[in-house]
């Protein structure tokens, strides 16, 4: 292991997949800002051609607030600087040669690329099984195959998720999953078989003349069914786990780093605090609560919610690829989270949300502030169903009867109550397995990396990934929740 500071990035050529994703954009901005002498960034994203890819990258990345420090630094020359440093490529990790159509460009990348950072994925919990398998499982192997052809490759960094552990309790170690390993001990997990099951189901649905909507619904159900058969709670983490299995089994002499972040939140420090894009996981709860649509929820108030700011994940990515460059045939896993070193519990998050939205009420579409109260947290599924029946389903049934009697006079209220119920039930369905999560993510490897980086003299203020430096109350009250609200109101 050798750590040399951000000078490692000087004159390096880095291929980034999924380049318009949340984490990828923060990674690219960071590289361009802290190491302008990077030789080349090949940024792969889905588009019909390279011109469309460039337009998409400019619209979805460069034009965002995220790049404001670079805009301040380079002014009118920013686009020139980015065009000199970055080649934006239309591609697809579900295809051979990553879907890059220009053979000369493929050969160029095989000659020049030093580091590959695979961030492309679908993170939808209930994604279609065919889509999730293509991206999260087999896409990882197309990236690996591409890496094997890169003559100068020093490291392949694959971003996974800590929740490949499913619903395990206790200390979850930074260890790999072996091919065919399952979480519930059920035997028979074979990734090729999973692909055949998916293909045969899809073929049958099409032969039956099913609508696209019906096919999508059936493929989502298939993904959940296959995941739960082997002990994973949803399609996302199941397909990511299988991707890890294949990488570990097929990597040969490629230096492989697998990074497993926990729940990623807005930026802590860089390029500025509170940048976020998209409403994910706990943010769905915060927004629903602020809008007055979430008055009860299910979960263990004492459960630890493992969150980590996005810029800390990116910093860990940078340091880990420095640390393992040229370690032929090695594989290391880093879990990047906070539940061991700086845990925060559900009841604290609830308190921060209550205090924030009482001080800064959400303004609804009528221009009126939404007054929030304390959420009723139900500690069992039975108590949740009783609460929903008494407070929502029964009143809805009464309202529907009255509405019918009075010629749809209360139709608006009926629809609004339906929306509230559907919103809560959807959240329970998607996040239910994590509401009583008892796992703690060991980060011994990550802590060792932090220590070695500090001892090596790496600029830890520039690449901080120590969750112990976070004051959660200050972060959520003054950084994260305001960032989420700002994003929603854009």
TrEMBL record:
Keywords tagged on the record: Lipid biosynthesis, Lipid metabolism, NADP, Oxidoreductase
EC number: 1.2.1.84
InterPro entries in alphabetical order: FAR, FAR_C, FAR_NAD-bd, NAD(P)-bd_dom_sf
Catalysed reactions, semicolon-separated: a long-chain fatty acyl-CoA + 2 NADPH + 2 H(+) = a long-chain primary fatty alcohol + 2 NADP(+) + CoA
Domain Thioester reductase (TE): 16-317
Gene Ontology annotations of biological process type: long-chain fatty-acyl-CoA metabolic process; suberin biosynthetic process
PANTHER family: FATTY ACYL-COA REDUCTASE 3, MALE STERILITY PROTEIN 2-RELATED
Protein's name according to its UniProt entry: Fatty acyl-CoA reductase
Gene name of this polypeptide: LOC104237358
């Amino acid at each position: 292991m050798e750590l040399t500071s951000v000078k490692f990035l000087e004159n390096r050529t880095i291929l980034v997949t999924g380049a318009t994703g949340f984490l990828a954009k923060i990674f690219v901005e960071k590289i361009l800002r802290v190491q302008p002498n990077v030789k080349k960034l090949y940024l792969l994203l889905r588009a019909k051609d390279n011109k469309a890819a460039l337009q998409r990258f400019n619209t979805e990345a460069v034009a965002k607030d995220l790049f404001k420090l670079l805009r301040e630094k380079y002014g009118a020359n920013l686009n020139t600087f980015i065009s000199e440093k970055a080649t934006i490529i239309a591609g697809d990790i579900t295809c051979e040669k990553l879907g890059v159509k220009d053979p000369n460009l493929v050969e160029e990348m095989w000659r020049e690329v030093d580091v590959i950072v695979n961030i492309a994925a679908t993170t939808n919990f209930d994604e279609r099984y065919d889509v999730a398998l293509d991206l999260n499982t087999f896409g990882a192997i197309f990236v690996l195959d591409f890496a094997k052809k890169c003559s100068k490759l020093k490291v392949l960094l694959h971003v996974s998720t800590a929740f490949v552990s499913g619903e395990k309790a206790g200390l979850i170690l930074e260890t790999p999953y072996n091919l065919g390993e399952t979480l519930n001990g059920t035997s028979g997990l074979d990734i090729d078989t999973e692909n055949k099951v998916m293909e045969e189901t899809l073929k049958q649905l099409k032969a039956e003349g099913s609508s696209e909507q019906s096919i999508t619904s059936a493929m989502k159900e298939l993904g959940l069914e296959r995941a739960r058969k082997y002990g994973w709670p949803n399609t996302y983490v199941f397909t990511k786990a299988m991707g890890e299995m294949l990488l570990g089994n097929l990597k040969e002499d490629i230096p492989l780093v697998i990074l497993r972040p926990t729940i990623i939140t807005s930026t802590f420090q860089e390029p500025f605090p509170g940048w976020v894009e998209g409403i994910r996981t706990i943010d769905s709860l915060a927004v629903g609560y602020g809008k007055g649509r979430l008055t009860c929820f299910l979960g263990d108030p004492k459960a630890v919610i493992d969150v980590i700011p996005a810029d800390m994940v990116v910093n860990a990515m940078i340091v880990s690829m420095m640390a393992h460059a040229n370690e032929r045939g090695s594989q290391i896993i880093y879990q990047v989270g906070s539940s061991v070193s700086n845990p925060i519990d559900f009841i604290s998050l609830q308190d921060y949300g209550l205090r924030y939205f009482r001080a800064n009420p959400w303004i609804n579409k009528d221009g009126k502030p939404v007054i929030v109260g304390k959420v009723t947290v139900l500690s069992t599924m039975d108590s949740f169903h009783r609460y929903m029946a008494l407070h929502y389903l029964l009143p809805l049934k009464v309202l529907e009867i009255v509405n019918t009697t009075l010629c749809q006079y209360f139709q608006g209220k009926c629809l609004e109550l339906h929306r509230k119920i559907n919103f809560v039930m959807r959240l329970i369905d998607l996040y239910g397995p994590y509401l009583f999560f008892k796992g703690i993510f060991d980060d011994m490897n990550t802590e060792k990396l932090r220590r070695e980086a500090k001892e090596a003299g790496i600029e830890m203020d520039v690449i901080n990934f120590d969750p112990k430096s976070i004051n959660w109350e200050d972060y959520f009250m003054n950084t994260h929740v305001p960032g989420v609200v700002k994003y929603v109101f854009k």
